[in-house]
Design a protein that fits this description.
Layout lengths: L1 H19 L2 E4 L19 H7 L5 E5 L1 E3 L11 E3 L4 E6 L24 E4 L15 E3 L7 E4 L2 E3 L2 E6 L3 E4 L2 E5 L2 E3 L2 E4 L3 E4 L3 E5 L2 E3 L2 E2 L9 E3 L4 E5 L2 E3 L2 E2 L6 E4 L2 E5 L2 E3 L2 E2 L7 E4 L2 E5 L2 E3 L2 E2 L6 E4 L2 E5 L2 E3 L2 E4 L3 E4 L4 E4 L2 E3 L2 E5 L3 E4 L3 E4 L2 E3 L2 E2 L5 E4 L5 E3 L2 E3 L2 E2 L9 E3 L6 E3 L2 E3 L2 E2 L5 E3 L5 E3 L2 E3 L2 E2 L6 E3 L2 E6 L2 E3 L10 E3 L3 E6 L2 E3 L6 E5 L3 E4 L2 E3 L4 E4 L4 E4 L2 E2 L15 E3 L4 E4 L70 H9 L18 H9 L7
Parallel strand pairs: 1-2, 2-5, 3-6, 4-7, 5-8, 6-9, 7-11, 8-12, 9-13, 10-14, 11-15, 12-16, 13-17, 14-18, 15-19, 16-20, 17-21, 18-22, 19-23, 20-24, 21-25, 22-26, 23-27, 24-28, 25-29, 26-30, 27-31, 28-32, 29-33, 31-35, 32-36, 33-37, 34-38, 35-39, 36-40, 37-41, 39-43, 40-44, 41-45, 42-46, ...
Antiparallel strand pairs: 67-68
Length: about 675
């Protein structure tokens, strides 16, 4: 009985709580004295409606302009109580929010936000405007929602958050416009003290953080707060120092399907976004024409852990990192991102990292421009990786002019894998300029890069760099090393590389420091193939005009179609099965095309070094046609002559008579012939 009374009492409490929630109506054009219970008796003051609202209430606000006060008191704001929803955009006769006109696509047009909360309370001009237009009830756990509202014309050059302040609470804004607000920092919005703010389908435009050290033109986020943004636009915002659109300190921010255009960090860093000691996620977003006078024309990550996926950076500009710049710690991961036509006045036309532990995967860098590192600039003490990326037509010119595609001076080892460098230009290091501790280039292609100085594909200044299964073709220089110049402090190793048709200079490979070439093809129209004051050790390689060393030879490699830059080995190439297995670095299982290494061609005698299958010479392993099951005599048809071939080679190792390709001629081969009888193989 006692339990039943508790249940009934709880049910009554729920009913009472639900019943207490109300919809209150507001219309600036309504007659005075309304009680807000209907459109016919609407409040004509939003402040009156807010004063009477409680948790669970909805305020439906008709189109019009609403100011926090009718006098000149700049300290009065709209204060939204905890748990209250304020919806705008009503004509004044709707029965449901669904009766309002549908909003357009927020990515291309503004939301319908003709319910305006304005700080313009005095004379025209900002100086006497409300300091803060909207404040939400602080330190509460019941969500506050704003829907289809404009928040404009707040002005507090000595404070922060002129448009809106959220403090230690949970707030959602949907289909809102925050525009034309100006403060010391966070011109449009201040979120701090563990606030949790969600923006969906919003536009934040022309807000300013213009204080002496003003940061976050549209939003300032700090003190363990959370900002979640989707399908929103940040346009034409300005910060005097950090984060033209958003500055975040010690917080978490995420952006999905957002655009950032024409935002400006005037004096320092992060043209659109600046994050410090944060967690950052960006996906499916677009950054264009953002600027910073310092680092990170679009984005600056400092001591932050970030993941940026499927995002485009177009025509952004900064001093270091035309689009993005990562500083200290990380990691920062860029996945399937596009960098196009960004510009840096100094280093990293597309991206730069300073001990930022940055990782680029499946990204493209096209037509970016810098003084050094046209595509990417990497420096500092943490390792970065570049995987399956494309660098095309990037330019490093003006002052230091190094590394047309990539410039690495990191003291920690960096790894570049499965990437291509094409048509990049500079003075030194057409594709790559690499120094620091030395770096690894695995399955990379350097084609038609150019420099007026040295190192058409790569210029190496220090450390030990390894090139494994790489192609260097048709690069050009004006001085030394049409393919690679390795300076006196650089050690260079080439394993299974194809270095061909590189032009200019005196030699294709210049070795100022020790150089090792194994299982490689080196054939270029230069006076020398290799030249330099240091030692070059060349073995098991095909070198034009010949060179001393074990297993070396000089013969036309027999490429598939060199005129079309197809430097794979054609059938019967002299480079098939002619390398040294001992010269293949450990764990190397794939060639430049990611096809298997160590594929035996039974039609070619093994002339190399090692137990079959013997590795081919060059960046590509010849891939023999797949065997035809049951075809014991390799004539393309499974029939009686195959049985004869099995009997003639009985107990032999094959390939003749080995119909099932198991390495021995025996009864299973007869079975394979019968199972594939009359089969015709192409």
């Amino acid at each position: 009985m006692h339990a039943r009374m508790i249940v009934l009492a709880a049910a009554g409490l729920v009913v009472a709580t639900s019943a207490s929630a109300a919809t209150r109506f507001v219309n600036a054009a309504a007659a005075p004295g309304g009680d807000g219970s209907s459109w016919a008796t609407a409040y004509n003051s939003l402040q009156t409606a807010l004063a009477s609202a409680g948790a669970g209430d909805e305020l439906w606000v008709a189109r019009g302009v609403y100011t926090p006060t009718s006098d000149a008191n700049r300290n009065i704001s709209f204060i939204i109580p905890a748990g209250v929803t304020v919806r705008g955009g009503f004509a004044g006769d709707e029965d449901s929010p669904k009766d309002r006109p549908a909003d357009p696509d927020p990515r291309t047009a503004d939301p319908l936000v003709d319910t305006v909360l304005s700080g313009e309370i005095g004379a025209q001009g900002a100086a006497d405007n409300s300091r803060v237009v909207v404040r939400t009830d602080p330190y509460t756990s019941t969500r506050i929602t704003l829907d289809r509202l404009s928040i404009v014309a707040g002005y507090d050059i000595a404070g922060s958050g002129a448009g809106m302040i959220n403090e230690g609470n949970i707030v959602t804004l949907e289909d809102c416009l925050i525009a034309g607000n100006e403060a010391f920092s966070g011109g449009g919005m201040l979120n701090w003290y563990s606030s949790d703010v969600t923006l969906s389908r919003c536009v934040l435009r022309a807000n300013r953080a213009s204080g002496q050290n003003g940061s976050g033109g549209a939003v300032y986020l700090s003190l363990s707060s959370i900002l979640t943004v989707s399908d929103s636009r940040f346009e034409d915002n300005y910060a005097r120092t950090l984060g033209g659109a958003v500055t975040a300190f010690s917080s978490v921010a995420s952006y999905a399907r957002c655009t950032f255009e024409r935002n400006d960090a005037d004096l320092t860093r992060g043209g659109a976004l600046y994050t410090y000691d944060c967690g950052l996620t960006i996906s499916d977003s677009f950054f264009a024409d953002n600027t910073a006078s310092g680092n990170g024309g679009a984005l600056l990550n400092q001591r932050s852990v970030a993941t940026i996926t499927d995002t485009t950076f177009l025509r952004n500009m900064g001093d270091v990192g035309g689009a993005t710049c990562d500083e200290e710690f990380g990691p920062v991961n860029y996945i399937r991102c596009t960098y196009d036509s960004n510009r840096s006045n100094l280093s990293g036309g597309g991206a730069a990292t300073f001990a930022g532990n940055s990782h680029f995967t499946d990204c493209t860098f096209t037509a970016n421009d810098a003084s050094a590192g046209g595509g990417i600039y990497i420096a500092g003490s943490t390792s970065s990786t570049i995987t399956r990326c494309t660098f095309q037509n990037n330019l490093a010119q003006r002052t230091s002019t190094r590394g047309g595609g990539l410039y690495i001076v990191a003291s920690a080892r960096c790894t570049v894998t499965d990437s291509t460098f094409t048509g990049n230009r500079t003075s030194v290091g057409g594709g790559v300029d690499a120094g620091g501790s030395g770096h690894d280039f695995i399955r990379c292609a350097f084609v038609q890069n150019a420099c007026v100085g040295s190192g058409g594909a790569a210029n190496l200044t220090a450390g030990t760099s390894n090139f494994i299964n790489c192609l260097m073709a048709r690069n050009a220089v004006g001085v030394l090393g049409s393919a690679v110049l390795a300076g006196t402090n650089a050690t260079s190793n080439f394993y299974n590389c194809t270095v061909v048709e590189n032009n200019g200079g005196i030699e294709s490979l210049y070795h100022g420091g020790p150089m090792t070439v194994v299982n490689s093809i080196v054939r270029n129209p230069t006076q020398f193939q290799l030249r330099g004051p240091s030692t070059a050790t060349v073995t098991w390689s095909n070198v034009l005009a010949g060179i001393t060393g074990a297993g070396n030879f000089n013969a036309d490699p027999g490429f598939v179609d060199p005129a079309a830059n197809d430097f794979r080995l054609a059938p019967a190439s002299v480079c098939i099965d002619r390398g040294s297995n001992a010269g293949v670095p450990a764990m190397t299982t794939l060639d430049l095309a990611r096809a298997p290494r160590f594929r035996d061609d039974p039609s070619v005698p093994d002339a190399g070094n090692g137990v079959a299958p013997v590795v081919d010479v060059g960046a590509y392993e010849f891939q023999p046609p797949a065997p035809c099951p049951g075809d014991a005599n390799n004539d393309g048809v499974v029939n009686f002559p195959d049985i004869t071939a099995v009997l003639q080679n009985w107990t032999g190792p094959g390939p003749a008579g080995d119909a099932n390709n198991d390495g021995v001629v025996s009864f299973p081969d007869i079975t394979s012939i019968l199972q594939n009888w009359t089969r015709v193989c192409s």
